[in-house]
TrEMBL record:
Subcellular location: Cytoplasm
GO CC annotations on file: cytoplasm
Protein function: Participates in chromosomal partition during cell division. May act via the formation of a condensin-like complex containing Smc and ScpB that pull DNA away from mid-cell into both cell halves.
Gene Ontology annotations of biological process type: cell division; chromosome segregation; DNA replication
Keyword Cytoplasm: yes
Source organism of the structure: Arenimonas fontis
Name used for this protein in its record: Segregation and condensation protein A
Region (Disordered): 1-21
Similarity-based family: Belongs to the ScpA family.
Keywords annotated in UniProt: Cell cycle, Cell division, Chromosome partition, Cytoplasm
PANTHER family associated with the record: SEGREGATION AND CONDENSATION PROTEIN A (PTHR33969)
Oligomeric form and interacting partners: Component of a cohesin-like complex composed of ScpA, ScpB and the Smc homodimer, in which ScpA and ScpB bind to the head domain of Smc. The presence of the three proteins is required for the association of the complex with DNA.
């Protein structure tokens, strides 16, 4: 007496309609004709290169491939046949010495469990109460198919650096003229206050002071700025001259700024103040003609 196979046992259960027999999958299609068996006279060398065209991302992907390849209904999976094909694939991978992930073996065990549950007879009282053993597997396959379809739809979208590229053009470097902001008189007075505070730290014991001329100090300031570079406002003052020297130097700076002989710039409010000579390069050798100071004290401020 021969034992019925899994497919016959599955279809012989009461309440299950007979399923049409599946056709054997061809090994290849040559000139439009399916090849069901390997040719007897085909010689394959032992060290021949073997190419696996199918690549699966996991056991669910393999199961979905086996189902869709045969146009089977995912809601009515023939577990016996799918299990056989699944195990055959694992055996082929082992023969080719491919290392399979543990998930493939776990899925093989799940298929074997579902197959055994469908083969075991059920008591008549539980015939309509027990859930289909394939229900959980079908749910996972449907969920995986939805995600796979969504991933394929996303892959069809235009992708930067794959389907499209950003057009660019080199823009030549251009020298931009940065106009410094104007300096208010209040900012210069605040800087003068700091210089006066520093001058008070020095004590003098001179008996006689030299005469300080605004006109002469204007020439000295222009000489200090003659290199054409910006100089810090505080560096033009000498604390050793005391408050009188600070005042004369400050008046000289105001006169030079008024006559547009120097440029006074400040990057931002309360930022350091810088001064620069506006004398042209051709006049660097000749001392510029200085205007008469307009201060009420005349040319000499103090003696």
């Amino acid at each position: 007496m021969t034992e019925p196979n899994a497919a016959d046992a599955e279809q012989s259960r009461p309440g299950i309609p007979p399923r049409p027999q599946q056709q054997e999958m061809p090994l290849a299609i040559v000139m439009g004709q399916p090849v069901l068996q390997m040719p007897q006279d085909l010689y394959i060398p032992p060290d021949a290169l073997e190419v696996i065209l199918e690549a699966f991302e996991g056991p669910l992907d393999l199961l979905l491939y086996l189902i869709r390849r045969q146009n089977l209904d995912i809601l009515d999976i023939p577990v016996a046949e799918i299990t056989r094909q699944y195990v055959d694939y694992i055996e082929v991978m082992r023969e080719l010495r491919f290392e399979l992930a543990a998930e493939y073996l776990v899925m093989a065990a799940i298929l074997a469990e579902i197959k055994s549950r469908m083969l075991l007879p059920r008591p008549p009282s539980e015939e309509g109460l027990e859930e289909d053993p394939r229900a959980e597997l079908v749910r996972r396959l449907q969920e995986y198919e939805r995600y796979k379809k969504a991933a394929e739809d996303l892959d069809l979208l235009q992708r930067l650096d794959r389907d499209t590229s950003v057009a660019g053009a080199h823009v030549p470097d251009r020298a931009t003229l940065k106009v410094p902001p104007p300096v208010e008189l209040r900012e210069m007075l605040l800087a003068l206050r700091d210089v006066l505070k520093r001058a008070e730290l020095y004590s003098h014991h001179a008996v006689r002071r030299e005469a300080l001329s605004v006109r002469q100090r204007m020439g000295e300031v222009l000489a200090r700025l003659g290199d054409g570079q910006f100089h810090l406002f505080q560096t033009l003052f000498s604390a050793e001259e005391g408050r009188l020297g600070v005042v004369v130097t400050f008046l000289s700076i105001l006169e030079l700024a008024k006559e547009q002989l120097i440029e006074v710039v400040q990057e931002a409010p309360l930022a350091p103040i810088y001064l620069k000579s506006l004398a042209v390069a051709g006049e660097a050798a000749n001392e510029p003609e200085l205007p008469e100071p307009t201060s009420d004290g005349g040319e000499t401020v103090a003696e």
